[in-house]
Amino acid sequence: MKPVKRVGSDILREFQLEEAREFQKHSNRELRRFIDNAKDKRPERIRLEKENPGKKLICFWASKINDESKLPWPRQDMFMGNNEELEKVASYLDNGKIINHYMRYSSCRLCGEDLGASDCSDGTYVWPSKCSHYLRKHRIFLPGDFMDHVLNKDLE
């Protein structure tokens, strides 16, 4: 018995194949764009500045010494103020408003302790939650303009 050839079936099949090819090309373009956005190739500092326009970043450290993030490594310049000033600044950091949450915890670059998964701000500066750890445990000296900002502010 001979197969029955339907009129237009080859045309329909070619049309469906072409439609499937176009859909696959579109899907591949969308997937490539999604992957490119997910793997942000910009240095970490530029990404953070873009996410927090007009705010100054403190306590954002490179993940390893001399990486390409353009972020500093925490220097253990001893905090030269008295313990009262240290505690005032540390409390200020602890009481910042949470502005970002992340899916992964950050860890201390010096001792490895878990430091949380969010960023905080006071409207002028942005810092990772638990930034006070660097001050209390390692006595890291924070930027002078930030220290002046906190120490000259009346906490209520």
Write down the Rg: 27 Å
Number of domains: 2
Based on Cα principal axes, name the global outline.
Answer: rod-shaped
**Main beta sheet: strand number and arrangement?**
4 strands, mixed
Q: Could you list the spans in which at least 5 consecutive residues all have pLDDT below 50?
A: none
Portion of residues within helices: 40-55%
Order of helices and strands: HHEHEEEHH
Determine the N-to-C terminus distance: 94 Å
- Count of strand segments: 4
Strand content: 15-25%
Mean pLDDT: 78
What topology, given as strand order, has the largest sheet? 1-4-3-2
Give me the number of helical elements: 5
Structural class of the helix and strand makeup? alpha+beta
What would the keywords be for this entry?
rod-shaped; single chain; four-stranded mixed sheet; 5 helices
Map the helices and strands:
Layout: H1 9-38, H2 44-51, E1 56-57, H3 83-94, E2 97-107, E3 114-121, E4 125-128, H4 132-136, H5 144-151
Parallel strand pairs: 1-4
Antiparallel strand pairs: 2-3, 3-4
Describe, in plain words, how this protein is organized in 3D:
This protein has 156 residues and is of the alpha+beta class. Helix content is 40%, strand content 16%. It is built from 5 helices and 4 strands. Strands 1-4-3-2 form a 4-stranded mixed β-sheet, with no helix packed on it. Strand 2 and strand 3 form a beta hairpin. It starts with 8 loop residues before the first helix and ends in a 5-residue tail after the last helix.
